Amino acid sequence: MDKRLRGFLIYAFILLLVIGIIVVLFMYVHDFFSIDLYNRIISVFIAVFITVMVLLTAATAVIFIAFRTRKVHPVMIFPVRLGMKLVIPFALFVAGALKKDKDMIRSLFIDINNLFVEAGDIRKEPDKIMLLLPHCLQNSECSRKITGDAANCINCGRCTIGAVREMAKEKGVKLRVVTGGTAARKAIADEKPEIVLSVACERDLAIGISDVSNIPVIGVLNKRPNGPCVNTTVDIGVLRDKLDSMIRSPEEEAEYGGCSEAAGR
Hints:
By secondary structure, the chain is of the alpha/beta class. It is about 60% helix and about 10% strand. It has helices at about 5-30, 35-70, 75-95, 100-120, 160-170, 180-190, 200-210, 235-245, 250-265; strands at about 130-135, 175-180, 195-200, 215-220. Strands 2-1-3-4 form a four-stranded parallel β-sheet, sandwiched between helices.
């Protein structure tokens, strides 16, 4: 049997099994539960829904405050996480259902994520930082293959890859040019950075940030003067500022090294 069909049948069976169990439970409830027990169950559901509403209201308010003040205080971390996990996905669902622009919500998600990440300890050694670029930054007429090795770029000036490569070399950070989300996840798994600075469009960045939940990711949106996925560009100044805020200075490195040796003793 085809592997895909077998997988589909397995998932369909699991779904039917879950529905069947729910039906049996409701039949049991209908036959044996009293009105008083029904009322108690309803009360529990009401309490749960009220709690969820309070948490979501707090999460929405905290996201609003974080966005307006450009700060995420430690006490705001849990509500911000909750809002990013629940409120924003729901907002994307509603925007899709209403045929509205999802990129506005994704852009907000990226912005809040950056605030959240930058509120923590993001200063790392250069070799622990990865700079991820989408291949659409490369000029579409260029014949050089840079997705395997960005060093193949000859810095002809027709796109921003050369300038970013020189900056990454100057700063000492890892640079990878990837073709999509799967390649980006593989690059992160292979290199094992402690933090990632990623350039992409709203959709790819939002998905990537959600997928790579165990490593902090700071996102920078690309610019698309020729439309999506072809001859895009990025603000080099913004990238440089982000990298400068992430790279640990020699003084900090000396202090960090001293603290590590003291902790080891």
